[in-house]
Amino acid sequence: MPEAMRYLGITVITSALLATLFTAWSPASLDPREVVGRILDFAIGTDPTEGAPGLAEATQEIRIPRVGIIAGHSGPRPDSGLVDPGAICDDGLTELEINQAIADLVVQNLEAVDVIVDRLDEFDTDLDGYRASTLVSIHSDACFYINDQATGYKVSRAVDSAVPDLARRLATCVIDRYERATNLRFHRGSITQDMTQYHTFYEIHNQTPAVIIETGFLYLDREFLTREPEKVAKGISDGILCFLNNEPANVLGEIQ
To answer: Other CB atoms closer than 10 Å to residue 217's CB: what's the count?
Structure first.
């Protein structure tokens, strides 16, 4: 009887895990029968990776998605212990306020579809070696007049990512879905070295695909960013889900 109960428990746990996995994430690269086999092996206490080189790394692909979200400029700087609010408008509105409001909404959107989300600060110690399905750092651009073309958003991956194909696909998804949600244009020409070599890219685990997004210019795009943060957050969260769910996305030109 105890043995029968044990296998009944295994069946229940396995069913719950399968329901969660195939609802939250169905990567096209995995055979569902393989997933079932791995989960069953895990449930009955065997090691599905034993004696199988490379399979341990492959099993990481079937974990429930975990996403890191950074509100740019949040938290104290390690060198001074002070918070850097980022861009500051003449009336005192800060980039940090915008970033935090958007990050909070992105977290809500992702948690609503059962994605595990880590809300992180700019210099969070948890970023050291951070492992996740993906990480997105949310920022906003300058709050002073540059020219009439200083409007729109920017997205960049690391120029020397250890997982360039995944990082490029993540950037493509975020660009595609963000533009659909916001109708802002991709301001490709002003992507800077501070974005392509963003410090967090080199702090997280090198297998974690990551991008940084500048959601808009705080001068010309201020009204949109402050009055319609839900659309901004939808663009980011939809881009992340596009990546996690292996959905199609199209962007013209090379993604930095």
So the answer is: 27
pTM of the model: 0.76
Q: How far apart are CA 76 and CA 86, in angstroms?
A: 12
- Residue 46 neighbours by CB distance under 10 Å: 10
Q: What pLDDT, on the 0 to 100 scale, is given for residue 256?
A: 64
Task: Domain of residue 192: give its range.
Answer: 65-244
What's the one-letter identity of residue 5? M
Q: What is the pLDDT of residues 196-245, one digit of tens each?
A: 999 999 999 999 999 999 999 999 999 999 999 999 999 999 999 999 99
Percent of the chain topping pLDDT 70: 74
Region of 253 (left: φ > 0; alpha: ψ -120 to 50; beta: rest) is left
- Residues 100 and 64: their CA atoms lie apart, in Å, by 25
Residues 144 and 235 in one domain: yes
**128 and 236: one domain?**
yes
Q: Which of 17, 39, 61 is where one domain is finished?
A: 61
Q: Enumerate residues 6+ apart whose C-beta is below 8 A from 184.
A: 151, 152, 153, 178, 216, 221, 224
d(CA 79, CA 29): 43
Q: 211 with 239: CB under 8 angstroms? A: no
